[in-house]
Specification:
This is YhzD family protein. InterPro entries: YhzD. The chain is α+β, with helices and mostly antiparallel strands. It contains 1 helix and 4 strands; from the N terminus they run E-E-H-E-E. A 4-stranded antiparallel β-sheet has the order 2-1-3-4, with helices on one face. Strand 1 (about 1-10) and strand 2 form a beta hairpin. The radius of gyration is 13 Å and the shape is globular.
């Protein structure tokens, strides 16, 4: 088993979940990490799952409206 970290965050960058867990491979870790986010009620927030510095999963925050300085 390998150790992974799931992190969930609000639009302003505030951490809402930051937990380590074990999984047998990257695909299992992604499923388990997303389940942890769902169970904590943070399914539709920014999130990442990492393993030894490698990004396994990333979801951007859902910012309302248009961001300054970005193309539309």
């Amino acid at each position: 088993m390998e150790t992974y970290t799931v992190t969930g965050f609000e639009n302003d960058g505030t951490l809402v979940l930051n937990e380590m867990f074990e999984a047998s491979d990257n695909q299992s870790a992604k499923i388990k990490g997303l389940d942890m986010l769902r169970a904590a009620g943070h399914e539709h927030k920014g999130a990442r799952i990492v393993h030894q510095g490698q990004l396994i999963y990333f979801e951007r925050c859902k910012l309302p409206g248009k961001l300054k300085g970005t193309a539309s």
